[in-house]
């Protein structure tokens, strides 16, 4: 009964997320924005100083065309370090997976399946889990509202309510005024649109990502995923051991990235008939 109630709750949450309208970002040339660099610096001041980040992430929505959901404990640190633990959906027991990454290594341990994936770039593993291809430093930049790590503004256009800032590497940040100055509330990179909202102390507590890629039949985005962030701490010290899994069980079966796509640990199963 508890599992059925949990699945029904997730299904309703996913449905609500999928129907929410996407932000309408400006198009056209706009007007020149001479002070674009200063505006971007002010809008990204809070996130640019974040070197380590930890939070509880609640995921809801679609990733790569699959309904996803779950709670993930995340720890990230520059440069290129990450630890993700998917918490047991029943609220107790061992995490469903451990995913650790460093600049030279990445390991995903699926605890329920007794499987392990190694020697694969962390961005590819993250893409297989969520439908969003992000390396650890990119994920830290997205969750903190910076959009890209170590961003360099190249130009800007004024569209009235929005100011669009072109960034090195092909990304674009979209700023809007707030009572505390310009705020980065949306961005585009790598075929994905990000929306940032529910700001506290200059950092977003809700991040939504929508892909340009669409279903051929329905026209819906293949990825429309929202991360709600709680228990946020920034610039706290991490030891190197946080980003390693040194003592794995001996009975684990090694799998490939292709086999991981068949496991889909974050996928929400359809609710069972409880009649």
Determine the strand fraction and express it as a percent band.
35-45%
Give the CATH level 1 class.
Mainly Beta
As residue ranges, the low-confidence spans are 1-18
Shape summary: globular
CATH topology assignment: outer membrane lipoprotein receptor (LolB), chain A
According to CATH, the homologous superfamily is Lipoprotein localisation LolA/LolB/LppX
Major beta-sheet overview: 15 strands, mixed
The rounded Rg comes to 19 Å
Oligomerization category of the chains in this entry? single chain
**N-to-C terminal Cα separation, in Å?**
11 Å
- H/E element sequence: HEHHEEEEEEHHEEEEEEEEH
Strand arrangement within the widest β-sheet reads 1-8-9-10-11-12-13-14-2-3-4-5-6-7-15
- Tally of individual helices: 6
Structural class: alpha+beta
Q: Under the CATH scheme, which architecture would be assigned?
A: Clam
Specify the helix fraction band. 10-25%
Q: Give a count of the beta strands, DSSP E runs of length 2 or more.
A: 15
Q: What does the average pLDDT come to?
A: 89
Tally of structural domains: 1
């Amino acid at each position: 009964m508890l599992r059925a109630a949990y699945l029904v709750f997730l299904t309703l949450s996913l449905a609500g997320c999928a129907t929410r309208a996407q932000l309408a970002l400006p198009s056209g040339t706009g007007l020149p924005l001479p002070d674009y660099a200063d505006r971007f610096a002010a809008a990204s001041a809070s996130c640019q100083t974040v070197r380590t980040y930890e939070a509880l992430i609640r995921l809801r929505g679609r990733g790569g065309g699959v309904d996803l959901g779950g709670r993930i404990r995340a720890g990230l640190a520059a440069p290129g370090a990450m630890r993700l633990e998917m918490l047991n959906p029943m609220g107790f027991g061992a995490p469903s997976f451990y995913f650790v990454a460093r600049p030279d290594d990445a390991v995903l341990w699926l605890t329920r399946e007794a499987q392990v994936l190694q020697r694969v770039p962390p961005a590819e593993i993250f893409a297989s889990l969520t439908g969003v291809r992000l390396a650890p430093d990119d994920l830290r930049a997205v969750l903190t509202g910076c959009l890209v790590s170590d961003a360099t503004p190249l130009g800007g256009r004024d569209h009235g309510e929005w100011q669009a800032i072109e960034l090195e590497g092909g990304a674009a940040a979209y700023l809007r005024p707030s009572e505390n100055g310009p705020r980065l509330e949306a961005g585009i990179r790598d075929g994905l649109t990000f929306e940032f909202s529910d700001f506290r102390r200059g950092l977003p507590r809700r991040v939504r990502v929508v892909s340009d890629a669409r279903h051929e039949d329905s026209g819906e985005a293949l990825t429309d995923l929202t991360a709600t962030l709680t228990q946020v701490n920034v610039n706290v010290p991490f030891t190197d051991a946080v980003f390693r899994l040194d003592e794995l069980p001996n009975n684990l079966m090694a799998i490939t990235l292709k086999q991981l796509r068949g496991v889909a640990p974050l996928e929400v199963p359809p609710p069972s008939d409880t009649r």
